[in-house]
């Protein structure tokens, strides 16, 4: 898989942030529920992820892994604290922040039943603000990388679960984001699919990007991580 | 490429996607044509029973009501857009808009474009059927200005549609759309002139964009005398568009902020 897309941001800003971690969680709190039934699923999360690092966050069901990733994507707001990517906070510059991320949600949703594999990739690269002149090459690369050549013109409703997951993974990385957030990415992947996933992660890291991988405790991991953290009682602990 | 160009490409891609999904249901267009034919036929015979000079000679009522119904259809397509967003939420696709640089507000606006534009095009197609099969006398000189009015009306209706999308995102419900459509069909002059409304209700004709829209389109397409001066209708319609569009965008952004905080943005 090709390396992360070279940012077109001014060189001055890149130099200014050169020493900063690529992803930084600073004092992130998130509550669920209301009133007396309110509880903190994330408690004062601090986490720095430098460029070129892959980190696994594991936890039991309901520990808050998905909540953490959703805060990083901007889908969910933190009650306190901030998440920054390359020094940009999600609420400050939505467009710049979201050009940097790729996200795979847990489960198998997020595909348009009547749209083809190529249609999905083409659509997503446009949404991700990839210029038209670069889109075709990126889409073709992703199709080849995830072994979707024979399925390129097939609608997603006619794909198997594993094929759907490959397409969903392709959508997470096709636009060459610098930060890739993966929520239980192994879902339905066979050995070949896992190898494609591994290779895609290497591509992101080679381009100076970072990967956050969330999975349940005890799951066999097909990737070697730089760090493994456990989310327990709302706090992150090194494993 | 400029940032504006990237937004335009992303919006165009959403329109292309919606068009591809629409085209994949091959019988949908045929079904729409049959539905339109039935409606036009029913009103063709009903209009023969109408004996009033309020809109010209009694035979003019058919042209009068056809313009009203077609405009109402465009309004309906805009006000039921929340159902599309609900579908996106249930399928988990709205997430893709939210996590993209396009963002949820512009993303929602881009979702509105294809249904509204296709409703305007289908409205034009309906007029062709009405003219060819039922003899509605369309003024060819009025077609181009009518197209402008139709697009202005559609953008105003789309802004109202965004308000319903905001309600859906914030409260997970946009049930009022059906009532609003029904109410507007009464007070917007779709089937009868607003001057027939009782005095205590007549003010409602002035505070929504359907009335000037229908009035202008009737005047331009079938030559019905407009209830208000044309310039006043245009000012009203333009005013609604200028005011409602940014207000709807701001309310949508607030709805998204609220549901991000509540953690319900992706729920339905």
Descriptive report:
The complex is a heterodimer of chains A (239) and B (268). Helix content of chain A is 31%, strand content 26%. With 239 residues, chain A is an alpha/beta fold. In chain A, helix 4 packs across helix 5 (132-145) and helix 6 packs parallel to helix 7 (191-206). Chain B has 268 residues and is mainly α. Chain B has helices at residues 3-24, 26-49, 60-79, 81-91, 94-98, 103-134, 143-171, 176-187, 199-202, 210-222, 230-262. Chain B is globular, with a radius of gyration of 19 Å. The A-B interface holds A 30, 32, 67, 73-77, 79, 94-96, 98-99, 101, 103, 105, 107, 109-115, 119, 122-124, 126-129, 131-132, 155, 171 and B 1, 3, 6, 9-10, 12-14, 16-17, 20-21, 24-25, 91-93, 95-103, 107, 257, 260-261, 263, 265-266.
Order of helices and strands of chain A: HEEEHEEHEHHHEHEEE
Radius of gyration of chain B over all CA atoms, rounded: 19 Å
Distance between the termini of chain B: 37 Å
End-to-end Cα distance of chain A: 29 Å
Multimerization state: heterodimer
| Averaged pLDDT of chain A | 91
Overall morphology of chain A: globular
Strands of the widest sheet of chain A, in order across it, are: 6-7-8-3-9-10
Tally of helical segments of chain A: 7
What number is the mean pLDDT of chain B?
A: 91
Low-confidence sequence ranges of chain B: none
For the largest beta-sheet of chain B, the strand count, sense and barrel status come to: none
Chain pair forming the biggest interface: A-B, 37 and 33 residues
